[in-house]
Design a protein that fits this description.
single chain
Length: about 425
């Protein structure tokens, strides 16, 4: 990696660190925050579903911003929107607002995150290629996962401890402050390199063009299509599990107000992300095909959820949580590297945003479904059912594997052995 590429990587890791730190202050206590505001389990996860619905609704329009106005502009809009919507969440909690207001602000939160999805990763890949970097993306994206894990570790633990020492609203105010600081950092450091925005004076026409490009370069491209079709099942379940573990672990622990325990759950996920980001490029060197890693990651994660659903011991649940997070985070850099190597630069942000849309669409359905299951049968049953739903992603990944796209073997080490149990 030359000096220019190292600079791009440093900026990417800085943005990842700040963004994840801001977001993670509430990750450990978000579900408890919603329940404390007077929402039921169904309403709390329905609010999360409206958040993911906002991501589905705005992925394509914000893709127009990223490709037409630049990835930097998209990032800045994202930080501003998230800061405003997070503060509105805090106000709703203070007022014990009705559910429809939570739903509306949750959609606004989803809008904020869509400005990030695809844009930052596309900025990184284009800038690295422009700088002359020709190595595998797993190494850089893996470092991003590691940095994200460190930030999440600090933010989630701090958020839980601060909430227990003060109240559940303070971590939301801290998040607003960090987001405003990241706006200033991005304004100074982030500049579009290796990419020229194509601005359009007709937003609706541009949105239709972006949607058409997403379909043409995504769903109509078989190996990409099958990876995208797997996303609603794997990502949708993952979103639910992360937030359901907070009240689930508190119930096992026996103290519903031990908010630091909820922060500990998020911290374990964060620590697993650090290890998973470190493992990803190393595991990649042991196998010929990226889809090997993806299929094993989804399959093992799903089976782990099934076991977690039958666990009644707090410390055993923590170990299973760590294993679930480790396997899942190891597959993330490999999946994103696989997708990026199948997408042209011009449509990169567009297709990556559409991929995020597919994952979010699963969350819209899965979260209220499993939330209602938790209301009726308990969190343990909802986790086990989530594992069954996640297994549906495996056949789609196998279908992508059978397309034999060169990206499946890209940057593989010479002599790497593939898993014999998987079909070629």
């Amino acid at each position: 990696m030359n000096a220019a590429a190292r600079k791009i990587q440093r900026i990417y890791l800085t943005l990842t660190l700040g963004n994840t730190l801001a977001a993670s202050f509430i990750w450990g206590i978000n579900t408890l925050f919603l329940l404390d505001a007077g929402l039921s389990n169904l309403e709390a996860f329905a609010a999360n579903a409206f958040f993911t619905a906002g991501m589905v609704l705005f992925e394509v329009p914000t893709g127009v911003v990223a490709d037409g106005w630049g990835r930097r502009v998209s990032f800045l809009l994202g930080t501003a929107t998230l800061a405003i919507s997070t503060y509105l969440y805090y106000l709703l909690w203070q007022l014990s607002a009705p559910f429809w207001l939570w739903a509306a602000v949750s959609v606004l939160l989803g809008l904020g995150f869509t400005f990030f999805s695809g844009a930052v990763e596309a900025w990184l890949v284009d800038a690295l290629r422009f700088s002359g970097y020709e190595g595998g993306l797993e190494a850089v994206l893996g470092r991003g996962v590691m940095v994200s894990g460190v930030a999440m570790l600090f933010g989630s633990v701090s958020g839980g401890v601060i909430a227990q020492a003060t109240n559940l609203g303070v971590p939301f105010l801290i998040r607003v402050g960090v987001l405003l600081a990241m706006f200033i950092v991005a304004l100074r450091l982030m500049h579009d390199v290796g990419f020229t925005p194509e601005r359009s004076g007709r937003p609706l026409q541009a949105t239709r063009a972006v949607l058409a490009a997403s379909v043409e370069n995504g769903l109509k491209n078989p190996p990409v299509r099958y990876v995208m079709l797997a996303a609603p099942f794997s990502a949708g379940v993952g979103i639910y599990v992360f937030y359901a573990l907070q009240p689930y672990l508190l119930a096992l622990y026996g103290d519903p107000r031990a908010y630091s325990v909820a922060g500990l759950a998020a911290a374990i996920v964060a620590g697993a992300e650090v290890v998973g980001g470190w493992l990803a490029p190393r595991i990649r060197r042991l196998v010929r095909k990226r889809t090997t890693v993806l299929i094993l990651s989804v399959g093992i994660s799903a089976m782990n959820l099934l076991v977690l659903g039958f666990t009644r011991l707090f410390w055993v649940a923590l170990v299973l949580l760590a294993l679930w997070a480790l396997v899942d985070s190891t597959g993330i850099p490999v999946r994103q590297s696989y997708l990026n190597d199948m997408i042209a630069s011009k449509q990169r942000a567009t297709v990556l945003s559409f991929d995020s849309l597919m994952g979010s669409s699963g969350g819209v359905v899965v979260q209220p479904l499993l939330g209602r299951t938790a209301d009726v049968y308990g969190y343990a049953a909802s986790l086990a059912i989530g594992g069954i739903i996640q297994l549906i992603a495996v056949p789609f990944l196998l279908a992508s594997r059978r397309q034999h796209h060169p990206a499946d073997r890209a940057n593989a080490s010479t002599g790497a052995a593939d898993a014999e149990s998987l079909p070629s």
